[in-house]
């Protein structure tokens, strides 16, 4: 018991930041636990002490404590506890920069397992990060001395990786190293500008905004002449200066230059963006200039600006291309095993997924293979997209991670016009590629793929015919090898084309003019010999240490008109390599440095042409013999039979049962010419992503003649993915007429054999059995929803699941999000079917891409319908009239909690709102959670009025607890909590609220039920909060019976140097509270007291208190307004004393309030002269004045014509003002 008591005491003193006592009690707890073998308590003590040392920066002590805790967990055989220790150790090691040791700790944590799926996911994510860092650091060590270009790319990847993980100092260090390499290599200014953008973004994340400005200015120098980029850079400079707190005089020129450049670039959308930021800054710093900016914003018409429409289309195309890039990576990852960490990631240290690029420049964005936007456009054959990118300044010769340039990609895929355009704009025609490209030039690439028109163009533009690959092949030898391999499959026209190109190459090699005007025509048919063709299996993915497939095995033949010519196999980075065998962590760490991984090989074109082949008449080709059919089928089995073993185990998707054992090979007399491949899956319309590098995916369709044949029993369930059909689109030709190809562009859906009429008679079920019910957990921000997927005739898609999650979130929070779903980091495509990508009880993460925000009136009506609450007519009028303006008021409507909830939900994400007034309603404590949720979406809110809302101490506590750690109320300047029954117990909550509002300048706490014990019971918290409130200018504590002791402690904690307005009306505990003025006098006598307005009305003050106050007036020259009204014991003597004291000050008072006091006439003309000289405004009760005073006042006005006095004598009140 004492062991746990010491542990709790240590934790308590740690929370109080008393380090010495904390360590003492922890040591006592550890000693007792060791003596008595209390391993669980020993684990807790060591683990907590280790984390405390880690947070304090004592890494060596933290490691010792955490290692001791891990040993305790190991002794108790508590795997989950040991896993937690390994994770904490890895965090310490990462802080120390030892990522290799951190990798070992995280691997051990992963193998030990985690108690919660969230913890397991965090371990996987952290391990992926560490593996990537280790791999890149090893590559950087190898490349620094011998390959500065490669080292520069690796530094960039390291910087992006650290930035993504939030390790901004290391990211900045990596970018600085990248910049040094770029300057060493004398890279173009555009590339160095991108690095400066990354550095500026990172320094901004580190709150070093002036450093960010320096790098933006350097980017501006390097991008001189590009007005569009200059506009964006000037905007970034302005925003960084704003974050740094610079004056408006420094911000305005930056915004104006950004606007001028955006106008020159003719980008209305960018102009509006600049004006919107400028308008926000002007509202805060220069309000008088804001209307002009707002007028200019309105003048920018969206609908009538054709240039802007083109810009929007261009941006949409960019977004679509980027979405495609991300989708290619992430959709493939969604098919991984549900364990979350593949063996390849665990053993081969291969980081899967997309290493997100910094958003400093759009040209710097790459997918997981290192392909830029230009790479993707060249691969997809989008000529207009390529032209737009180059015109906008995209670099022409960037390399992907394997070393291929966009020109390589265009030649590989045979896009002639794109090749022509790139060469016209200066693309490197003889680029041999990077480290993983084996010296292949664009000419080698085009010849190796049979793109003779492209090869001709390259020769015309001076491509070298003497350069050789690392295997020693010249372009001529590459072509000869291609012809030799495919000679049986080439028709006459293709042979003539190949011969013509061969003659061109020979002429160029001999020094003659290689140009030839011979016209080339695409053949209309192709021949196919199954015995001499390449195997029908999919192109194998090379192992990580392989370089490139032999060129001779990658060629293809020409195709008939209308058929796209897919590209040849070429080394690409593999996303899912073969799983390696398990080994110990020590063995893994001792492995050699990892080589750059390579992309997925593109499929052999000859194999792809099989799907497009249409058999000729019977006279041209006779029926195949039985042995030939069997040989073809065996070739097919070699290609697809190992798909399941390569892809790893997966849960069966169908429920079928074999009636009898079946032979592996089907005799040719049984159904070989029909639908011989069966998929035991429900019929779906799910589209698979097209394989990379293909033009028109051609899939086999069911033949019309297969309906009448006898259906045989299904031997086993469907193999999860048929790699042969999906990767290369190469179905097997078993004989003439056995398979018919689909027309180009048809959806790639898997074939399912149609059941025949005899199958039901044989005892086979008419349809597949219903799968077990699926329930999916969807995490939307802080909410987790369990969503059942009902069985129906149409299988639900991922888009349906996202819509269900959005509706549930709307029911809970009142906001309707637009969601994208991720499973273990992989993006789920909306069109995919749920059973294809998810299993029951899987948890997916929903990311909010945008919000559905109709007009405020519609939002309010929809919120009422969602909550089953009737619409309040006055609230409806308020939202209709005020809409989405800068202020919203719903005061004095007496709305209860049920009526306020839909209003608060409707106001969510009203980001422009500056003032929210809800005074005079019945918010209560139960509705504060809705209020906090709404305030969290109003970053610009400057005024919040919650007065008279039945808000109690619990409600204030909820309000205070919901604000810290968020951006909520960071801009709040005025808060009114008056007339709420807060009581004395809310001091801690009020202190937390003050800390959560750093810009608060006005705080009103009138009539909140504070008593004598309010401040003393929370003096430490409240005193610290008030002292830290540097911007507090106005504080009202009126109508709270504080009494002299509580008032003294309150005034002692107030910041005398900044507070300007203090209201203390009716704070006396009673008539006998004679010492009430002492703390006020001490406060006014403080050095540097800046108080200008003081209210002391209704505090039972008399002439003695006023005489003492007069002595303080000379000590506080800043005081210019004094309200002593409603103190009936103050007489005319006090007025005379005040006027005499004011004569000794440099200035009088702008306001003196004595209404409700015992000032009795006649005052005399001399006293009225003093009043006119020392006071600008006076308020008296005229009930005690006589007619002589009124006459004296009337005589006073004509005698001083220049002073401009005015009086108001109405009823029992007399007001005098000197204008």
UniProtKB/TrEMBL annotation:
It is found in: Chromosome; Cytoplasm; Nucleus. Residues 577-594, 618-630 have a biased composition (Low complexity). It comes from Pan troglodytes. It comes from the Eukaryota. Keywords: ANK repeat, Chromatin regulator, Chromosome, Cytoplasm, DNA damage, DNA repair, Leucine-rich repeat, Nucleus, Repeat, TPR repeat. One of its GO terms (biological process) is DNA repair. Residues 513-525, 748-759 have a biased composition (Polar residues). Residues 302-314, 322-350 have a biased composition (Acidic residues). Belongs to the Tonsoku family. This is Tonsoku-like protein.
């Amino acid at each position: 018991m004492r062991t746990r008591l010491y542990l709790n005491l240590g934790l308590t003193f740690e929370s109080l930041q008393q380090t010495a006592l904390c360590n003492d009690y922890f040591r006592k707890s550890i000693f007792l636990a060791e003596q008595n073998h209390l391993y669980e308590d020993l684990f807790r003590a060591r683990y907590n002490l280790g984390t405390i040392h880690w947070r304090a920066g004592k890494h060596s002590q933290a490691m010792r404590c955490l290692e001791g805790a891990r040993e305790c967990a190991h002794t108790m055989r508590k795997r989950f506890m040991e896993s937690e220790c390994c994770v904490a150790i890895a965090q310490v090691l990462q802080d120390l920069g030892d990522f290799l040791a951190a990798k070992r700790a995280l691997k051990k944590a992963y193998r030990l397992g985690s108690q919660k799926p969230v913890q397991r996911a965090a371990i996987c994510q952290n391990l992926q990060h560490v593996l990537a860092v280790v791999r890149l650091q090893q590559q950087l060590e190898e490349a620094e001395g011998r390959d500065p270009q490669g080292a520069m790319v690796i530094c960039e990847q390291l910087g992006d990786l650290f930035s993504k993980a939030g390790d901004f100092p290391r990211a900045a260090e990596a970018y600085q190293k990248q910049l040094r390499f770029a300057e060493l290599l004398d890279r173009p200014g555009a590339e160095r500008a991108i690095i400066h953008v990354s550095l500026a973004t990172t320094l901004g994340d580190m709150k070093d905004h002036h450093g960010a400005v320096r790098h933006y200015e350097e980017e501006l120098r390097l991008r001189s002449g590009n007005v569009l980029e200059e506009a964006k850079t000037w905007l970034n400079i302005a925003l960084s200066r704003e974050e740094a707190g610079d004056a408006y005089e420094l911000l305005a020129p930056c915004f104006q230059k950004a606007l001028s450049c955006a106008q020159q670039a003719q980008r209305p959308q960018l102009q509006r963006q600049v004006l919107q930021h400028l308008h926000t800054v002007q509202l805060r710093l220069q309000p008088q200039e804001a209307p002009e900016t707002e007028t200019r914003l309105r003048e920018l018409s969206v609908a009538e600006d054709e240039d802007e429409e083109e810009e929007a289309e261009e941006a949409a195309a960019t977004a679509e291309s980027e979405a495609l890039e991300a989708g290619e990576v992430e959709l493939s990852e969604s098919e991984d095993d549900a364990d979350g960490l593949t063996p390849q990631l665990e053993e081969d240290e291969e980081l899967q997924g997309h290493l997100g690029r910094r958003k400093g420049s759009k040209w710097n964005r790459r997918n997981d293979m290192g392909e830029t936007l230009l790479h993707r456009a060249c691969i997809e054959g989008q000529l207009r997209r390529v032209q737009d990118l180059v015109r906008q300044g995209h670099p022409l010769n960037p390399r992907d991670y394997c070393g291929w340039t966009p020109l390589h990609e265009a030649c590989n895929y045979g896009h002639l016009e794109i090749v022509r355009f790139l060469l016209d704009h200066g693309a490197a025609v003889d680029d041999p590629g990077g480290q993983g490209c084996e010296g292949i030039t664009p000419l080698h690439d085009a010849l190796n793929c049979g793109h003779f028109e492209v090869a001709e163009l390259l020769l015309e533009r001076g491509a070298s015919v003497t350069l050789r690959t690392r295997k020693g092949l010249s372009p001529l030898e590459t072509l000869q090898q291609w012809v030799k391999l495919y000679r049986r499959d080439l028709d006459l026209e293709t042979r003539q084309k190949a011969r013509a190109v061969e003659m061109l190459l020979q002429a160029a090699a001999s020094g003659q003019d290689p140009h030839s005007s011979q016209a080339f025509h695409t053949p209309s048919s192709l021949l196919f010999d199954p015995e001499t063709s390449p195997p029908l299996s999919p192109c194998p993915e090379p192992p990580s240490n392989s370089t490139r497939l032999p060129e001779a095995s990658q060629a293809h033949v020409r195709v008939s008109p209308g058929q796209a010519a897919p590209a040849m196999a070429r080394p690409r980075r593999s996303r899912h390599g073969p799983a390696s065998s398990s080994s110990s962590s020590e063995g893994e760490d001792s492995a050699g440095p990892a080589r750059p991984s390579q992309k997925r090989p593109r499929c052999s074109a000859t194999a792809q042409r099989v799907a497009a082949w249409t058999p000729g008449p019977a006279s041209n080709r006779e029926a195949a013999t039985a042995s030939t059919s069997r040989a073809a089928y065996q070739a097919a089995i070699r290609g697809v039979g190992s798909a399941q073993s390569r892809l790893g185990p997966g849960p069966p998707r169908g429920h079928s049962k074999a009636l009898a054992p079946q032979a592996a090979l089907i005799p040719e007399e049984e159904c070989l010419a029909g639908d011989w491949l069966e998929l035991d899956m429900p019929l779906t319309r799910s589209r698979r992503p097209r394989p990379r590098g293909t033009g028109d995916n051609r899939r086999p369709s069911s033949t019309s003649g297969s309906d009448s044949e006898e259906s045989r029993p299904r031997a086993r369930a469907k193999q999860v993915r048929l790699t042969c059909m999906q990767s290369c689109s190469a179905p097997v030709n078993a004989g003439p007429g056995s398979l018919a190809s689909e027309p180009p562009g048809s959806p790639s859906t898997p074939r399912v054999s149609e059941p025949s009429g005899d199958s039901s008679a044989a005892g086979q079920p008419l349809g597949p059995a219903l799968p077990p019910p699926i329930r999916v957990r969807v995490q939307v921000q802080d909410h987790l929803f369990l969503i059942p997927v009902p069985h129906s005739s149409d299988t639900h898609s991922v888009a349906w699941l996202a819509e269900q999650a959005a509706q549930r979130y709307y029911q809970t929070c009142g906001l309707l999000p637009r969601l994208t779903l991720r499973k273990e980091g992989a993006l789920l495509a909306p069109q995919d079917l749920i059973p294809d990508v998810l299993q029951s009880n899987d948890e997916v993460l929903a990311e909010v891409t945008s919000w559905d925000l109709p007009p405020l009136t519609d939002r309010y009506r929809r919120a009422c319908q969602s909550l089953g609450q009737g619409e309040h007519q006055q609230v409806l009028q308020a939202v209709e009239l005020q809409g989405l303006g800068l202020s919203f008021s719903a005061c004095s409507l007496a709305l209860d909690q049920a009526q306020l909830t839909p209003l608060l939900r409707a106001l969510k994400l009203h980001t422009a709102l500056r003032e929210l007034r809800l005074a005079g309603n019945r918010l209560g404590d139960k509705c504060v959670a809705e209020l906090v949720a709404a305030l969290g979406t109003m970053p610009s809110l400057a005024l919040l009025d919650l007065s008279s809302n039945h808000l109690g101490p619990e409600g204030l506590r909820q309000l205070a607890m919901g604000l810290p750690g968020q951006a909520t109320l960071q801009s709040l300047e005025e808060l009114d909590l008056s007339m709420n029954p807060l009581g004395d117990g809310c001091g801690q909550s009020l202190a937390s609220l003050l800390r959560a509002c750093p810009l608060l300048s006005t705080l009103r706490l009138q009539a909140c039920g504070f008593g004598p014990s309010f401040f003393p019971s929370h003096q430490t918290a409240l005193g610290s909060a008030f002292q830290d409130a540097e911007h507090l200018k106005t504080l009202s504590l009126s109508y709270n019976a504080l009494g002299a002791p509580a008032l003294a402690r309150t005034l002692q904690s107030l910041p005398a140097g900044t507070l300007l307005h203090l209201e203390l009306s009716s704070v006396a505990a009673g008539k006998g509270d004679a010492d009430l003025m002492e703390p006020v006098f001490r406060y006014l006598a403080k050095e540097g007291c800046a108080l200008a307005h003081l209210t002391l009305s209704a505090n039972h003050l008399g002439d003695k208190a006023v005489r003492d106050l007069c002595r303080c007036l000379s000590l506080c020259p800043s005081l210019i307004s004094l309200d002593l009204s409603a103190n009936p014991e103050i007489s005319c003597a006090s007025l005379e004393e005040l006027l005499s004291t004011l004569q000794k000050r440099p200035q009088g008072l702008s306001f003196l309030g004595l209404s409700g006091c015992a000032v009795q006439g006649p005052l005399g003309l001399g006293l009225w002269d003093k009043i006119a000289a020392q006071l600008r405004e006076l308020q008296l009760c005229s009930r005690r004045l006589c007619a002589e005073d009124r006459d004296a006042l009337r005589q006073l006005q004509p005698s001083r014509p220049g002073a401009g006095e005015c009086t108001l004598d109405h009823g029992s009140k007399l007001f005098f003002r000197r204008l």
